[in-house]
Amino acid sequence: MSGFYRILRLNSRIKSIRIKLLGIWLFHVLRKRYIGIFFDPVLACNFRCKMCYFSDAEKRKTYKGTLDYTAIESIAQSLFHRALKLQIGCGAEPTLHKDLVRIIALGKQYHIPHISLTTNGSLLSRDVLEGMAKAGLDEITISTHGLTRETYESLMVNGNFEEFRQVLKNISEIKTQYPDLKLRINYTINNDNLNELPYLWEIVGEHMDILQLRPIQKIGNSAYSDFDLSNIYASYDTIIAPLIKSCNEKGIVCLAPEKKNIIILEEDKTADRRIDKATYCYISPQGCWKEDFDYQTETFESYAKKHHYGRQLLRHALGKTPRDKVDVTRKMNYNIN
User: Fold this and answer.
1) CATH number of the domain at 3-336, out of 3.40.30.10, 3.40.640.10, 1.20.1250.20, 3.20.20.70?
2) CA-based Rg of the chain, rounded to a whole angstrom?
3) Which residue among 23, 73, 145, 269 sits deepest, i.e. has the most Cβ atoms within 10 Å of its Cβ?
4) Mind listing the pLDDT tens digit for each residue in 154-175?
5) pTM for the predicted model, two decimal places
């Protein structure tokens, strides 16, 4: 298990949010890395996955823009030195950006401990994969919503199942030359693909290092509308639990919710977002971190000093627990198995 997932596991085992916030405050005052940078260098996607807001024509009109490399360099100078993780590709397809390999190399220039790329994989040639591995990519995450041709191509509109399998094969070959590169599969579970999970070993094989099982969540308007989790809950012991056990036996890290958490997810429409607010840094062509943050003239430190960020963190740790209403499914808690 990599150092980053050890940190995630430790975080999942600490149940007190106050203790976590005090730890973040301590990292802040000691000028240590603690933020996660979630970066969409381009707001576009070549797929129209039915569970994603890119399947909504009206939403797609609002998702536009590309950050040029000069702007990315300025952002890196302002924020990358405080990043524990750089996640490239969050709500869009990062392989559409022409400078993707340079972005990865830039992250390593700032010694970011963990750099991950999330992609549908369709544009990844073997040469591009090798270039990313050479630049220092720690983890490549391939999103998939089906393990048969019919389901994959139905849910991942514009996708090709054979191309998906070829990308997996190429990654496996690259990993023999760059063994530190990890392959993660993100599988979003719904009522149409739940029963295909046992095919995982046949399709992905044992070259997978991390598996995340993600029960479907509402992340905006989408073509797919079946968000009922009752069948996933009922099938947990027969489908999901055995898969988690197999991952443990094979030495594969498995991120999955507990069975009880699936029902809590469906019922709870509020969330304590103090940890997210303290550590989450989203960057895209439409904005960088905070609405009033100017990456051209400010750094993380100058902004934090101006806004008394350390004092705010301590107040969040010691104050009352706020509960924010959410209009989408709230964030799920995952066990690091």
Assistant:
1) 3.20.20.70
2) 20
3) 145
4) 999 999 999 999 999 999 999 9
5) 0.91
